[in-house]
Amino acid sequence: xxxxxxxxxxxxxxxxxxxxxxxxxxxxxxxxxxxxxxxxxxxxxxxxxxxxxxxxxxxxxxxxxxxxxxxxxxxxxxxxxxxxxxxxxxxxxxxxxxxxxxxxxxxxxxxxxxxxxxxxxxxxxxxxxxxxxxxxxxxxxxxxxxxxxxxxxxxxxxxxxxxxxxxxxxxxxxxxxxxxxxxxxxxxxxxxxxxxxxxxxxxxxxxxxxxxxxxxxxxxxxxxxxxxxxxxxxxxxxxxxxxxxxxxxxxxxxxxxxxxxxxxxxxxxxxxxxxxxxxxxxxxxxxxxxxxxxxxxxxxxxxxxxxxxxxxxxxxxxxxxxxxxxxxxxxxxxxxxxxxxxxxxxxxxxxxxxxxxxxxxxxxxxxxxxxxxxxxxxxxxxxxxxxxxxxxxxxxxxxxxxxxxxxxxxxxxxxxxxxxxxxxxxxxx
Length: 429
Description:
Blueprint (H helix, E strand, L loop, with lengths): L1 E6 L3 H16 L3 E3 L7 E6 L4 H17 L4 E6 H5 L1 H4 L5 E3 L7 H9 L10 H6 L3 E5 L1 E2 L10 H4 L4 E2 L2 H14 L3 E5 L7 E6 L5 E3 H11 L4 E4 L9 H4 L10 E3 L7 H7 L5 H14 L4 E8 L6 H14 L3 E6 L17 H24 L5 E9 L6 E6 L4 E5 L8 E10 L2 E8 L4
Helix pairs in contact: 8-9, 13-14
């Protein structure tokens, strides 16, 4: 049977889909593209914004039109938040707690059993270069705008031994890079594995074990909170296998807006964290998230946010407008910002994001850096796209296939959305 997965939202959702796709493939299902005709369609949904909700509903309707006889399943955070909204569009709605049993549920519905078939080439191509591994789930933070604590309320960490085994499995499958992800990666704790001082192992201990016990060539972290970045953690970056990239979600560069959001840091604390990273790892990329149009955001507060981001020296900024989520405090706040104002502020922040990315890339002109190549930009083009350790998107021409290889590249000029490079060593690294 052919199964198509569609994923929206965060890296944690992507990691869970990757894990599910692996389980389905090993059990005899053929994994196909989300746009193909399939016997089973599975949407791993997001509900962080109303746009994410809309995209999930749209894809489910498309799936039904592609194959009216298909089994259509909705899971993920939207399914957790509002089963009734998705029920008319899906044959089965599975919440986050039951997601781990999705294979067994699907097998019982399709009576496929455990027959083995050859793994889909699409799965092999799309999942091979960078792999996302879930290490933690759940969040109890009181941010006033966020629906995540309601749809992922149970906070837990996976055992370090299980994570290390999974990294080893990914290496054996040919992955060059692993990304550790979760709802709050920095809160990772393994009560089973303790340190020499008798404390539960934390994220620093986990990373050290992965570096010591596996042959992964690159290890990258997803988003961290400023309070989770310490000198002890940063000391690990002496190992060049750790990618020089930190994503620190700011959300607003206005102190008063941060307070209304109930974020766990001040601008001063955030700036100190940025300074610590830059002092310890000068070539590191620091990327962030910025929300515009939070309830009550005045013109002055927006300008404060814009100015902070302008001066911070971010490598990139993910910009998005505030979207009121059901049952959150911010959805009930007075002074909701008009859509037109949100759009104008969103556009200004996007322009700043492009400028920040350009300035960061320019710092590395004429330098040589290793690049992990992902794929050819177009069939037969000979132009490949890949990433440096510090998350610069690089494009280069090669007569030889480069996908899933690491080569040394000289960065020569801007090429939206990154840099054009010249390969100086085409031997795999």
